[in-house]
Amino acid sequence: KRMAAGALFTNEQGDLLLVKTHYKEGWSIPGGTVDKDESPLAGCVREVREEIGLDIPPERFRLLCIEYTHPAGVKTESLQFVFSGGVLTQDEIARIVLEADEIERYQFTPIEEALVTTNAGVRGRLPACLAALKDGSCVYRE
Q1: pTM, 2 dp
Q2: Rounded to whole angstroms, how far apart are CA atoms 85 and 104?
Q3: How far apart are CA 101 and CA 42, in angstroms?
Q4: Cβ-contact 106, 31 below 8 angstroms
Q5: Which of 8, 16, 86, 127 falls 20 to 30 Å from 119 in CA-CA distance?
Q6: Residues 6+ apart with CB under 8 A from 47
Q7: Please, what are the averages of pLDDT over each run of 10 residues along the chain (142 residues)?
Q8: Distance separating alpha carbons of residues 69 and 75, to the nearest angstrom
Q9: How many other CB atoms sit within 10 Å of the CB of residue 58?
């Protein structure tokens, strides 16, 4: 199975950190493919470090959602993991450095806008992730 992991981060105002990649339509969250023999959490930590330059310790992440996606066209089935990375401080935001070959830009977006501007995969998972973030749960989607 393919696996991917991403992280939800907010600023102190509650806006969601979104990234715009060179290769996907719409905005996304920091994250990407989990490598062979790598755990979803380790993949998330690595992808965050690679894409936005922040070295967030693993213990800061909390699992919000696991989604199984069925095969579609040329894409095989997959597991998508979404973690909460918490609230980024002003100091952390100032240290964001984008991986230029992959990420065009980033922005903090109000939740209502993020529900519309994110790519289809993130947009489908986002309401469940936000509910899990609010009530402390973890959600399974299929």
Answers
A1: 0.94
A2: 21
A3: 22
A4: no
A5: 86
A6: 5, 6, 7, 30, 31, 32, 33
A7: 96 97 91 97 98 97 97 93 98 96 96 93 94 96 95
A8: 10
A9: 11
